[in-house]
């Protein structure tokens, strides 16, 4: 059953959504009390130090007092929830060829509704979520006109949200540049050319113990800005091999470092391995802004970070080639970059 979860409800979980035992989440996961929460209104140099430490230790942190209009956050979240509550025939206008899209190259900038899952030998299971995805940079008329027509203010509000999201995310990348000793604006080029807005809808699930909202993974892009209002996001603390829950903070954004940034920093900074669990009683909606390279880019460790004592850990590779592996090979969290790793 590969259809939109938001189109139906049931007291049972369809077999195609049941995750294998070794993929399922533990029933009890502790709250991550050490997760960094960074106040961007504090002293600039102190903020840079905090972000640098969070990037080295966790690859994930939350920011508050970030300057993103709170009323815009609330309005966009409201409209996204309204979109997924629309009748099936309205949402199906965004289905290519009459069926849900799967994440595969080439990813289109025009709006589509996606389902996502994992291929297991000759079988496949699907995550308990639907995803509305579309590009949002640059904001040209043709692109915006591909976005949902309903709710009627979605296009106007999502466009404003996308501009503010890019502004904040590029600010985060400049903080990262400072922490690394890179020139400000190092990422303000083809490395941040692609901007996607992914709105994920996780309906209430009758059996959370057998399903996943999303399996454990790195984001493949450069950096992700995530708005969430309910629990569900969990992060793997690699050194302890333990999962922790990332507590939602009202009006905060979660900042997630992707595999591409981990490579460019030559592993000075971590990426974040994370997953999403389902909820038996409440719908959960998240809004993710993903910033990443143009597919024509070549990715390699930043030369300014390399030395005789710190040689490159990865050979240069085409981003499009990496993306193809990343989307198809689920054999390990870092499977997408393994072919390019230089063995010591």
UniProtKB/TrEMBL annotation:
Residues 193-293 form the Fe2OG dioxygenase domain. Belongs to the iron/ascorbate-dependent oxidoreductase family. It is an enzyme of class 1 (oxidoreductase). Gene3D superfamilies: B-lactam Antibiotic, Isopenicillin N Synthase, Chain (2.60.120.330). PROSITE patterns: FE2OG_OXY (PS51471). One of its GO terms (biological process) is coumarin biosynthetic process. InterPro entries: DIOX_N, IPNS-like_FE2OG_OXY, IPNS-like_sf, Oxoglu/Fe-dep_dioxygenase_dom, Plant_2OG-oxidoreductases. Its EC number is 1.14.11.11. It comes from the Eukaryota. GO terms for molecular function: hyoscyamine (6S)-dioxygenase activity; L-ascorbic acid binding; metal ion binding. The keyword Metal-binding applies. The keyword Transcription regulation does not apply. It comes from Anisodus luridus. Keywords: Iron, Metal-binding, Oxidoreductase, Vitamin C. Signal peptide: none annotated. This is Hyoscyamine 6 beta-hydroxylase. PANTHER family: OXOGLUTARATE/IRON-DEPENDENT DIOXYGENASE.
């Amino acid at each position: 059953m590969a259809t939109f979860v938001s189109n139906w409800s049931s007291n049972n979980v369809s077999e195609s959504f049941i995750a294998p035992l070794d993929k399922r989440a533990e029933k009890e996961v502790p709250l991550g009390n050490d997760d960094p929460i960074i106040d961007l209104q504090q002293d600039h140099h102190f903020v840079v130090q905090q972000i640098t430490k969070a990037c080295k230790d966790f690859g994930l942190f939350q920011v508050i007092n970030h300057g993103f209009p709170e009323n815009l956050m609330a309005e966009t979240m409201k409209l996204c929830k309204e979109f997924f509550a629309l009748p099936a025939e309205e949402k199906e206008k965004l289905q290519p060829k009459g069926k849900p899209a799967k994440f595969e190259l080439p990813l289109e900038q025009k709006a589509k509704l996606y389902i996502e899952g994992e291929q297991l030998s000759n079988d496949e299971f699907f995550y308990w979520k639907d995803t509305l995805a579309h590009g949002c940079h640059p904001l040209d008329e043709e692109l915006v006109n591909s976005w949902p027509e309903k709710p009627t203010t979605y296009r106007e509000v999502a466009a404003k949200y996308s501009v503010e999201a890019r502004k904040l995310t590029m600010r985060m990348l400049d903080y990262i540049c400072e922490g690394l000793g890179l020139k400000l604006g190092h990422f303000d080029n083809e490395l941040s050319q692609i901007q996607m807005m992914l709105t994920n809808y996780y309906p209430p699930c009758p059996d959370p113990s057998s399903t996943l909202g999303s399996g454990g993974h790195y984001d493949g892009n450069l950096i992700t800005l995530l708005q969430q209002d309910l629990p569900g996001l969990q992060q793997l603390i690699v050194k302890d091999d333990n999962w922790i829950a990332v507590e939602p903070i009202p009006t905060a954004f979660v900042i997630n470092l992707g595999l591409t940034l981990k490579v460019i920093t030559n592993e000075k900074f971590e990426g974040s391995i994370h997953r999403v669990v389902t909820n038996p009683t409440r719908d959960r909606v998240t809004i993710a802004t993903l910033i990443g390279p143009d597919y024509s880019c070549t990715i390699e460790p930043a030369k300014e970070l390399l030395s005789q004592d710190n040689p490159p850990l990865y050979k240069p590779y085409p981003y499009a080639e990496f993306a193809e592996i990343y989307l198809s090979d689920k054999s390990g969290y870092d499977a997408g970059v393994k072919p390019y790793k230089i063995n010591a």
